Amino acid sequence: MMKKIIEDREEEASDNNNNKFTVNWSDLCEDMVEHLASHLATPRDYISFRGVCHSWRSLTPPLSHLPWLLLHDDPTTALRRFYIPIEDRVRSFDIPGMSGCFCVGYSKGWLLMLHKETKKLSLVNPFSSGCSSVVPLPPLPKEYSGWMSIRRHRNWRRNTRYIQKMVLSNSSPTSADCVIVILFGYGFIAVYKPGEETWSLLNNSEGPFVDALFYKDQLLVVNDMGMITAFEELEDEDDWDETTWDEVPSVLPKDEEGFDARIYFFTSRDGVEERMDNVKFYIVESSGGDLMMVLQLKHDLSKGKDIKNLTAGFILFRFENTTYRGVSQWVKVESLGEEALFLGKNESRLIVVSDADSLQGVKKNHIYFTEYEHGCFTGNTVDPHWDLDMGVYSLEDGSVSDYIISKKPYLIGGGRRVWESPPIWFN
């Protein structure tokens, strides 16, 4: 009996001693919790951190559905900075698979990385952990790259511009039914499916192509004249069927001879009409499932005008296919309603914006864009002010303004010899 009492007393004393060193995680001070959250390695760790207890979750804001902006960074490390609109702050994350690489594209949660030295390609998902977060890809075919080949060159603008766009058919790039598409070189189309050893090249006769989108089981690509070509994978065949939308009227005006002219006449908010011959095309799917084409109109710098923003404005069209009347046409869109459009090296995307989001610096019925000026990647010396064409366009009043972070050039690479990839919208 005495032995049992002694054992109970010893166990009680041991428990008391252990309790002296036990800390309730929910009792950590707010400053410590916020400090720990700011030093987490990956977004995935951040999500897990918020799930520890109620107090930690209340002190750390949730990851917003609004896109983050992946900023310029030193490619020799895996540390990357993201500007988070809902917090109006920059967070740094150590992301496996990004050391030594530039980010040259984004689609459905995956960043396309180009290694600075080896020129190898890979997909990286910052929200995944372990081996599944990095997917190696075969090298692009060199024989089709022409003068814009990836090579060792001081001007890394040429290399990062070599890859124009990457899109995925779904968010699982290792699954057998996923298709990865890259627009590279002078508008070539490279297609890859997991398990294959090399990329396949699709017909480029209607190119050069400038944007791509998976839409209703088809791969759509648009060329620099705004003409769309559709590719559809044939069942049980290693081939793609091609259809050009010749019957669809172009969104471009006609020249004197009746041909599509790569020009547009744009009237600014002060009523001045300007001829725009620098037009860039994007294609995007609306939340309602409609196909939209976006025209980005840019000023001609050679005219020597005192211009604050390189981009003059945007014009939007929605594809209307009324088959019962035998008519297909592009209908001009005056408003995005409750949505905002994000354009750049990322896959073009429309995001629904709530009133709360508007208070966090992202406004509905606006277009957020970030890219390099086209003339810069040829190796010419360009005013650093025009290295990065970044801003916000309002469809309400036609104004173009600086994005909040573009006022902080030290974060986006402004004023430096630019050889990095541009900031990329990441969602």
Automatic annotation (TrEMBL):
InterPro entries membership: F-box_BR-signaling, KIB1-4_b-propeller
Residues of the KIB1-4 beta-propeller domain: 85-393
Record's protein name: KIB1-4 beta-propeller domain-containing protein
Organism of this sequence: Acorus calamus
